[in-house]
Amino acid sequence: MAEGGPQPTPPDNPSGNSHLLDCPICLEQLRQPKCLPCHHSLCQECLTSYIISEVSGTSDTAVSFTCPVCRKLTHPLNKSEDMENWAKHFPTDIAVIEMIELKNRSSEPHYCMPCQRKGNMMTSAKFWCKTTQSLFCESCKVDFHDMIHINCDVVDITETKSFLLSQSTSDKICNKHKEKMDYYCEDHKSIGCCKCITVGHRKCDAVATTEEYCEKLTSGHWLEMRKSLQKGEKEMESLVKDFHIQLQTIADGKDTAMKNIDNLQEQIINRIEEMKKEITDDLIAKYIEEREKLKVSSQKCERLKVAIQNTLESSTTAQQRNDHMDMILLYQRGQAEVESCRDLLREVQTSLSSISIEHEADLHMTSQSPALSFGKIIVRKQLQHIPADTNAFAKPLSERDVKELKKIYIKCPSDEYDCSSRGVVYLPDGRIVVGDDGNNKIKLIDTEGNVVDELKVNGSPYDMCMVDNTTVAVAMYSGPRRICLVTVAPSKLILASEINIDIECYGIAYRNGEFVVSSGRNVFTVTKDSPRAMTRQIHESSSTVYALSYDLNHGKLFTAHYTNRTGRVVVGRLSSDNTYSSALKVGVVKYADGVDVDREGNVYVCGHSSNNVIQMSGDGTNVRELLTTKDGIACPEAISVCGDKLVLTNVSSTKYNYITVYQLV
């Protein structure tokens, strides 16, 4: 029999599952916990505020919201209720309430009961006898309990921290029938007691005991779900780190811009306070806007990452305890989180950008024109892509479909003739540099599709390549034989230098610190020396080469051959030691006129007379038509790929003055 007075609750510490007791919104212990269909629990007050915040401004007739953790679409249990009352109708998470009560009880001190009978009221207990429901210190256990009781189940409460929790959560009782819930209906994805199953699920095809269903899960689905969650955790961790870096980057940009503004203040004392306030307000507003956007995106990833971590941890605990109900609930929750991870990655894949805030000074002070200006604040966004080899859910570019994003009109009021574009570069920040040999110009197009600057050149620009993120090299095929190096400023093109060469120049690529150019059937290397460079022939072809592209990741240089003769090479490949091989022969492509390579090593080729654009593997084994005449393709001329987007030019008389941007989806 038990010794001492009233029987206490055995001590325990459910800290192993303490994350289940915290609200993912306020990050404090759950109050009035409400459980959503995806099995994530939140404070009723926090959930109500979240629903009102998300639904407000979207639609007056909104009938759903997304879970703030896994973003699963959730419908209210009673759609006729006002959104302010949606949260309270979701079921209360009884298990969480019990765990909170258990946690509160476990924080109380526990004393040896025989010692209390002797008058020593503060002797700490070390052992709990489950048979006699009594607490003992080590001395009383040996001298008293063990002398009388032989087969009792005694637990060292200083070492065993989850005894009571496992007891309190192993057997779930049906609220309606007060019987053990040990059956699971796969058709309705619900757990119930034998009466629930008999009454409500007798016509269902897949009904089993919770033990049988858990055995089925552990045969493969459980491990697969955990692996997917682990992948998702890594993806969310990577995104969270990236967002933190971006927050630091824009903060650094803000600080740099503030410093520039302060330096400029010393030069323009008149009206300084008023002008400084205007531009500073603009800077802070842009900073706050971009910071909040990044924080929102980071918060989505952080919540999902924490949820995935919690599910992984809880699933391990549930499996160790052989808790069938928890295993099922965690399996369902894990599936929702994996799907949400995929959705979030797809969303981020199309919008992730490297953001910087810059200050562009525009000070022009002369005796004739004493105008003062602080310049302007520029928010620069460079499209960023999750590499396929680190994105477990990413679809390779070679398997994606293509869709047209927009047509860009590039003819300017100052143009005398229609625009014909034989070279184009898609910059990493989303801007486009395009050659216009019809008007002997190079043009800069911003991310909105507007021509923001035009650079007049002596001669006709042909192929182009990127030297770095702010420098473009242009091959000039008429006029003086040369390569033009153009600096791409925020909204301006600047002719930085010209490299004179002794050969005609059509195709151009940048490889290992020097240029590779094509001149008719020959391919040369060209040093960067200015004003006159050194050239060296590295290959002679049987047909004219009009375009080149270098694959930095694999060290291959691709050549586009302007030929339609059967058996001839239409796309060639030069290795780092300039060994030449065929990548594709005339067939699906005729008169190759433009070539580029994406980050995965896929090669894109413009078929001038075959009126198509093909995508092929670097070795030419896998070839598919990406765009054809059915897509409105006619005489494609040049192509440039940036991440999952590409820009295409053409010289068809029906397509003059336009370039087209596509996306691989």
What does the model show?
By secondary structure, this protein is an alpha+beta fold. The protein has 3 domains: 14-170, Zinc/RING finger domain, C3HC4 (zinc finger) (Herpes Virus-1, 2-Layer Sandwich); 236-383, no CATH class; 397-664, Neuraminidase, CATH 2.120.10. It has 10 helices and 36 strands. A hairpin with a 5-residue loop joins strand 16 and strand 17. A 4-stranded antiparallel sheet has the order 13-36-35-34, with no helix packed on it. Helix 3 runs antiparallel to helix 6 (163-170), helix 8 runs parallel beside helix 10 (324-351) and helix 9 (272-321) packs antiparallel against helix 10 (324-351).
Instruction: Provide the gyration radius in Å.
Output: 35 Å
Supply the helix-strand structural class.
alpha+beta
> How are the strands of the largest sheet arranged?
13-36-35-34
Shape: elongated
CATH domain class name of the largest domain = Mainly Beta
Average per-residue pLDDT, rounded, comes to 84
Keywords for this entry:
10 helices; 665 residues; alpha+beta; disordered N terminus; 29% helix; Herpes Virus-1; 4-stranded antiparallel sheet; Neuraminidase
Summarize the structure.
With 665 residues, the chain is α+β, with helices and mostly antiparallel strands. The protein has ten helices and 36 strands.
